[in-house]
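Page 42, continued from yesterday. The earlier attempt failed because a stray header line got pasted into the input along with the sequence. Redoing it now with the clean sequence only.
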Amino acid sequence: MSFPNDETGNVLQEMQQAGIELNEMHDVVFFQLFEQKAQAEQLVAHLQAVAPDMVVKLHPDETPNVWDVDCTVRMVPSYEGIVAQEAEFEQLAAKFNGYNDGWGIEA
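This time it went through. Structure tokens are written below.
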């Protein structure tokens, strides 16, 4: 499988080379960052209402005064699927004054 030469493509290429089966379902975690805990909590409440099956975790970031919302989506990690999901989270996080900060697979 080949991937576009960008950050997402490079990560998927590295995962494939590490032996991760990318044609199978995985728990893909998308990371959202916020400067205010209240804004992060608003995103969590929104996701609990619209996507109750999604695993959402709020926790302090390693950076002081930054809050992480980790959103786990069960999916086949295709390039197109990852890019589309990241774009969706970017728009959603922006509504609560946050931003998407990448993704990863729980291995």
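Notes: Residues 32 and 100 are 4 Å apart (CA to CA).
Reminder to self: strip header lines before submitting.
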